[in-house]
Queue: 3 jobs
Job 1
Amino acid sequence: MPGTTEYEVLLDFTNDTHDCATVQLQRDYGRSTGAIVLLHPGESVTLVLDAGTVYKYALKMQTRVANVTARAWRDVHCPVSRLFPQPLQTSSSAPLMPVAGITVDQQWRDMRFCIWNDT
């Protein structure tokens, strides 16, 4: 739906799991300089994006990380559980598309640090 008029769309990540999750710009992942949004179970964050523009995020739940590309022409609601299918799919040839406008480019495990207590 490209056009000459620019407009904004809403991207809503909702944590529908029993664990905490984080959302952060992919380019800032693993650095202490980037902003991180911590989502407790049942919480959500709504991001305002330019329609049709590509955005890359890293979502983390415990040690699982999903590198996500968002490019939407209309408002998108994305449950976090849809980004982390069971079992972890690390070597899939086709990217996972859990909802329209969202693509999971890569899933992996990050054991370097954990921001919450798992005990």
Job 2
Amino acid sequence: MQGTTVSLAGFRLPFVSPHGNGRKPSTLLGWPGESTKTDRRRRNRGLFRLTALRLIKIVAALIVLGGAYFWWSYEVHIEIQLFNRNWIAKTVLATPPLSSTCFDPSTVARSSYNTSLANAPAFVELHAGIQLPLGDDCFDFASTIPRAPLPGMVLPAHTIFHAYWRADLLPLSQRQVSLLHSLLAMQDREATSVILWTNSDTTTHLRDSPLLVELHRLYGPDRFSVREISKHSLAKGTPMEGSGLLDMADRRAWLDGDLVRVLVLWAKGGIWVDMDTIMTGRDIRVLGESEWVTQWDCYDKVYQPLNGAMMHFHQNSPFLCEMLHAMAHDAPPRKGTTDWGSMLYHKVWRRLVANGITPFKILPYCFTDGVSCRLDNRLPDPFASRDYSWGKGRGAALRRKVNNVWAVHLHNQWDRQFPKKGWVRTLILEKVTAAVKQYRVAKNAGESAGADGKGGEGRGNGRRQ
């Protein structure tokens, strides 16, 4: 073996690479690969952040697209109301006995209630029987009712429109006068009149108001008058006579306004109209065969389905007697509520049917309040500031809706004005203005009360009692 050289070039130990570990020597503290590890961690962190950001963007985009598809494909109806269960059980669900006298035949016979009128067969069915929340169903149903009284209809000989205004809460303005004009100039001149009721503190003020002096001058005292409300006098002979609840009032005129509705209709009979309403000019006599309140909106609220912004009852109606009985004997109303309004009508309606008595009718919501439904099928916002430049067919559809109904309930909003090019001015107020001018011309010329042809539409049809 002397002089022999052994080469280890081809010799390799297991698990050991002949080229080393492929790392460059570290220049930091003599630890090989330390700088490379740090850089790799940094790169991994950056890659993770970039990946997470991309993932968030993708998820956000999917959410937006999914939300858009869901909104396009589905309707979402959400309404959350909280009711005390004990209050529901005692106030809403309970059906205590009716008064022992209101529907007693001898009591009715001694009253001024016109049973011949109330019990006469009706030509017109006012109650649709379903909610009518879809499309134009409600407005189409309104179109099925005759435009003028039919021969053979038994109608009141004279209809009084009643309204209530407290000038101590808000001064009278042109907005309220427009309602009065829409009643006086556009309804039958021979068969209708208007009484504006007010509290004692403002009676003289209203009578002397330049706005109302002009109405007195134009329409005369037989068709328009301002009267002081005396709740104690109107309540005589009713279940509320002498009750301390007669003096209840609030700064919204809700409690006293709801009470005045029932007392005035009990004493005088006729149609109640809230002052935050505008009439369209459609002949309201065709609704006079039945006594009625209105549906609150197209949703039929479970505990608040009815509204009295417009309501029709005959003088000394036993229905009103039952309402006054409930006011006198149920729990006192809560301030700032509709306990003597919507809640009262619903309670009495349920008590009537529970005792086998045919209740008063309920007008579909759009007859007097077509704004109270979904955006896709209701009347537009009366106070919308934008110009209603409708596309082809849209303006005609809106005009048809307005022509089919009798009133538009504006739900207060006293601080808002109708825009000059809005649909209320175009489709309603311009008609009111034209009717007032015609009325003034006819009066000055000494022509007959129905010379304008609108207020006298259908005159002579129907029998009046």
Job 3
Amino acid sequence: MESAPDSAADESGLHTARIKILEGFANGKEQKLSPELREILADVADCGASRYAWKQLQTLITRRLEDVVAAYRNKDAKTIEIDGEDFDTRYKRVMKFLQEFKEPPFTLQRMCELLHEPERYYRNTEKFFLAFSKTVCGITYPAEHVSQLRRREPPKKIPKRGFKSNGIDEKLENIPAVEEKQEPLKSSSAATGPQKMETTA
């Protein structure tokens, strides 16, 4: 039976080896996604946090996304248009957003889960891509204009305040005005009618 120090040393050695492999990949020394590189994604998916340099991991995530989308589309090339935008337009936008992260996003664990075992969760391109888009953009569909996300409905009367998510302005759905009924004030004058001002003779 291994002792705890030996186990910790093995784990440390494995992590050091993965760092070197990732560095080589990020520097262009390795072109193919090896099983060791995919194990890095699995490691982040399991830990929930990154133990690797973000810029290097970002390169791996981007490349893995390219490979996953290509594999889905080779199997089934069918995609759909959403509000007049085809799949390639949306794909390029997600790629752009992904490359603009200066530090690991809080959705990193879910990103790596989807990229490590994509077909465990989704069987076609669109379902996978919409799920992955949320981890990058923070919204269901990364449209250029947020108004495209909503169904085209008549404008409501009272708008709620807006908020920002990952740099994208979003507004909450408008709600119809609610007419409030006011109870009449109860006072002594209510029973006798309006009082007259007394005048002096």
